[in-house]
């Protein structure tokens, strides 16, 4: 069940919704329009996430817009912040970061299949008016996306490193902020 606690701010929350899925996956919709399907199975053996082996605890996931919250018991909650979720998606425990493949999709979106078992649907649509990403408005440039396992390349025109990728997935694009 999708969960969301009430927000006190009128800003767009960094996390719009979180929905627990089968096989210890979380469907996370960010305020940027990007979506992360976070594979948590590779984290369940760690002290921090061990309690998520309990399906009731795992399915208690909700968001207050700033973080994902699991209701562990009355004494404490387990939180996952957006940057932490992206970090877990980009790098499995004990592994180097690895983008297995990147596929261009409709409506200026990219699908990144990650070695961690996670999937990122990166929404570039509202970033395209920005000077840095303006060349991607040309369909052939966006379609030319490739990866070396760590970075995204759009021919010789643009390189996006892991930090920039995280920012694109999490930050609210200027085009959306202007609409508010």
Question: Can you offer a commentary on this structure?
Answer:
- The protein is of the alpha+beta class and 180 residues long.
- The protein has one domain: NE0471 N-terminal domain-like.
- The chain is built from 5 helices and 12 strands.
- The strands form 3 sheets. Strands 1-2-3-9-8-7 form a 6-stranded antiparallel beta sheet, covered by helices on one side.
- A hairpin with a 3-residue loop joins strand 7 and strand 8.
- Helix 2 crosses helix 4.
- About 3% of the residues have low confidence.
Short summary of the structure?
The protein is an alpha+beta fold and 180 residues long. Helices cover 18% and strands 32% of the residues.
CATH second-level architecture = 2-Layer Sandwich
Sheet with most strands: strand arrangement: 1-2-3-9-8-7
* Class computed from helices, strands and strand pairing: alpha+beta
**Whole-number mean pLDDT:** 90
Helix amount = 10-25%
Please give the alpha-carbon distance between the first and last residues: 29 Å
Beta-strand segment tally: 12
Give the overall form. Answer: globular
Biggest sheet record: 6 strands, antiparallel
Whole-number tally of structural domains: 1
| Total DSSP helices | 5
Query: Mind telling me the CATH class?
Result: Alpha Beta
Element order: H for helix, E for strand: EEEHEEEHEEEHEEEHH
Could you please say which CATH topology applies here? NE0471 N-terminal domain-like
